[in-house]
Protein: Transcriptional regulator, GntR family
Amino acid sequence: MEQGSAREGARPAYAPGAIPYAPGSARVPEGRLPGNRVPEQARGRQGEEEQARGEHTHGEPPAPRTVRRHSVRGQILDALRAALVDGQLVPGQVYSAPALGARFGVSATPVREAMQRLAVEGAVEVVPNRGFRVTERGPRELAELAEVRALIEVPVMLGLARTVPAQRWSVLRPLAEATVAAAAVGDRAAYAESDRAFHRAVLTLSGNEQLVTIADELHRRSQWPLVAGPATRRAELLADAAEHTALLDALIAQDLTVVQALVREHFTGADG
Structure:
């Protein structure tokens, strides 16, 4: 279910203008649209409410909102993560925030902030006065990640298989089908996200939020490409996705023997 290399024919992850950059723009206050008159009694209250919300009156353009900037940073972070999985960001290569910002059509600031987050996650490392180098990973690191994930997830999944009723597993069917849909078109970035979403949903049934957070972080790290790794073929993605649906079928049927075999195979197989 995991991947460690870039797929062939990956779509460009950062064509110019791919991520909209819209700094805070003026907004027409409520009730001020053409043709709408605000009653005199309401105007005073409205002015007070607008001031409480930090909005400008008298036609003054509002200041850029911080949430807008964070929204752009979040979009850039998602796009960079997808580019990592797709292999658009090559292990060992150094990328500058201004250059990536130009490709995305944004300033260097949200790119730099997103890259700092990726550095905390271990996906890139800071290169002073140059930018960020994509971390180089080998098969040993991928195997170690798979081993740690197995130690965490296998016993939890087996415990859930014994206690969670069939109808609760049925709710996860769309998540399993989403991995198949992404695999069918060879979209590695979409597959990586849907793969993690399925695992998060399963582990969430344990009620242990810390476990879910730690397992998801390990899962994300296992999806970064290997150095000079082979491209993952669509058939391999489909085979991995089929494990999700097979596992879910076994959980719904409460077939513990099949569940145990599938879960252990998942983490001991070639793709973890």
Remarks:
- The chain has eleven helices and three strands.
- The longest strand covers residues 124-127.
- Confidence is low (pLDDT under 50) at residues 2-69.
- The beta strands are 94-95, 124-127, 131-134.
